[in-house]
Amino acid sequence: xxxxxxxxxxxxxxxxxxxxxxxxxxxxxxxxxxxxxxxxxxxxxxxxxxxxxxxxxxxxxxxxxxxxxxxxxxxxxxxxxxxxxxxxxxxxxxxxxxxxxxxxxxxxxxxxxxxxxxxxxxxxxxxxxxxxxxxxxx
Length: 138
Prior knowledge:
The protein has helices at residues 6-19, 60-72, 93-98; strands spanning 2-5, 25-33, 36-45, 76-84, 105-110, 117-123, 128-131, 133-136. By secondary structure, it is of the alpha/beta class. The chain has an 8-stranded mixed sheet. Pfam families: Prok-JAB (PF14464).
């Protein structure tokens, strides 16, 4: 289960809207507790993909600095997010082919959905397994 505060939820959707029609991407900071992934902060990471309207690639240097920040603040990077500005509210074939962080949560912001929404999956190394998303008030 993924738990997001209202500020984190809104930050992901705001980033998705700001970067449209390109896919937005970033990292989620927080901690894991039993079967829950708790997100406390969102960090935007530039999308350096060759075709950013169709896919995303996290900027390696910025991603490394987010891991450093997490360590320095006693948190961990618990997952990543990206957007589908006009695409489906599900992981694409490309998302499955490019997934490279087993055990991490992948959040998808779908702007095509009305209203826009966030869904989450955990990458097992072989497939995405859907996670429940719980929104908590900060």
